[in-house]
Amino acid sequence: MAAAGAVSPIRLTREEFEVIAQEAYESLPDRFHATMDNVHIVVEDRDSASARRRVRLKPGSMLLGLYEGIPLTRRGSDYGVHPVLPDRITLFQRNIEDLCSSREEVREEIRKTLIHEIGHYYGMSEREIRDAGY
């Protein structure tokens, strides 16, 4: 998920950010929890140049989250027959904080970013996610 703009950012410790991220994930509808499998959610400080190139990020925008893995819609019947690495949703802490001036704004931005990246897990394109309101 990408966003542009900046406010007076809030700065949290990694532990504080991870607690908010866990609470945001737990606040998502049960259908997300019931159908997601083999996905790790991790936090990193900032996105990388290679991640920005991979998602073709517009200049001046920043990446708030990134889904990496095999979307459910592309998994064949042989998926999981052999061990597979977990899919990964990365939240970029400093990028999210740069857009927020309060803990509540961080919480809401994390929630929106998680929903957006989970959409990719379910095989939705950027356009489909935007059309769904995320």
Verbal overview:
The chain has 134 residues and is α+β, with helices and mostly antiparallel strands. It has a single domain (11-71, 85-131), classed as Zincin-like, CATH 3.30.2010. 42% of the residues lie in helices and 15% in strands. It has a three-stranded mixed beta sheet. It has a two-stranded antiparallel ribbon with strand order 1-3. The longest helix is centred in the C-terminal third of the chain and has 19 residues, at 103-121. The radius of gyration is 15 Å and the shape is globular.
Secondary structure: elements and pairs:
Elements: E1 2-3, H1 14-26, H2 30-35, E2 39-44, H3 49-54, E3 62-63, E4 65-68, E5 87-92, H4 93-98, H5 103-121, H6 126-131
In a nutshell, what does this entry contain?
The protein is an alpha+beta fold and 134 residues long.
Radius of gyration: 15 Å
Number of helices: 6
Helical coverage, percent range: 40-55%
SSE run: EHHEHEEEHHH
CATH class: Alpha Beta
Return the CATH topology.
Answer: Zincin-like
Q: End-to-end distance, in Å?
A: 9 Å
Structural class by secondary-structure content: alpha+beta
Shape: globular
Quote the average pLDDT: 88
